[in-house]
Amino acid sequence: MASVFAQLIVNGKNEGVHAILVPLRNEKHELLPGVIVEDNGYKLGLNGVDNGKIWFNQVAVPRENLLNKYGDIKEDGTYYSDIKNPNKRFFTMLGTLVGGRICVARAGLGGTKFALAVAIKHALKRRQFNDSIKVQEDLLMDYPTHQLRLTPLVASAYVYHVTLDKMMQQYCDPSQPDKRKVETQVAGLKSIITWYANDTIQECREACGGKGYLLENRIADLKGDVDIFTTFEGDNTVLLLLAAKGVLSDFKSEFNSAGFSAVLKILGIQINDKLTTINPIYTNKIDKDHLYNPKFHKHAFDYHTRRLTYSLAMRIRDYIKKGVPSYQAFLKVQSHLVALGKAYSNDLAYTTYCDFVETIEDDKNRALFQKLGTLHALRTIRQDAEWYLEQGYIGGTKSKAIRQRVERLCTELRPHIEVLVDGFGIPEHCMSAPIAK
Question: Which residues are annotated as catalytic?
Fold first, then answer.
């Protein structure tokens, strides 16, 4: 039996997408009349999943097969739904897909944790090179380049784990039936996390040298299986466009709700930001307390999101003022939309993580988690350094200091690295890669 999402047309009126249970085969597993099924064949990975195509030709199912939580066909053949607004009903119906996107991101993150555990456990016992005085060769994990390759990826794994836990909690909250906000959040997070997953697994493969290329060490299969998640449940670039449009909608409602005072408030924020951020004292502030302070990280992420939102809204407005149709206006700013989707997702992940860290009662654990958050934040800001430099938000001196601090944090976290990968909670019997033993 399949659950089929389809347009529900009742008495000639289209009531939108609904889910319907449709039997495909009888007890002998023979296809029922009007149903054609075809397998898609072998894929890059994840071949345990039977992707295929189904055709229906005049297939009838009883009224009771409609999954009717949000809309139903009554016995007299009329349609009824508690959700009167068709737009809201559509988003409620498709809320199921949001759960799928959370699961895809979590699956990608699960594969990433396994690859990191294999690469780091290998690096903690594999020795390579030394000077002539030493008796023992150096551990791979003691090389600064190796730390820089893997440690920030472990920090990000923790940040994304905490964020996805929070998203799942919000998605499953029955008191919040309207999932549109969660849809915006999850669309962006799914994109940045699954891209991170692919990049990390590749880094882990290379960090294990030829051993990582062997099938027995499992990273090769992970590369194939996790690859699909960048397009599974929505192509990542398209999902970032969706996330950015959600951010713009929120901006528009905030802009319109309070009228002129909101406009003044937003312009005031812009001016205030310009004064504090373009100030040379701030843009080149490089002391440790400032660079390690979550307030600086939050401000950087928030500034990135708000600046892109504001400039994007102004660009679209200008195009529409010139008579460009809204669809064409959106096409002209697609790269800007993608940048906003990424910035928004980075902001959301870090803010969610910081809120979680505040709840940790044990001082030592909280300090360790704060350090992980700092490494993740500085590395992310560093990756977007081009934008921050263009905006004058950071100067060259500060950009250089951030790079140095990322390297320093990797060294500071070296004593904790084994505990951190054990903290992923991968059962011992699942750690089947020979190089991880």
Answer: 233
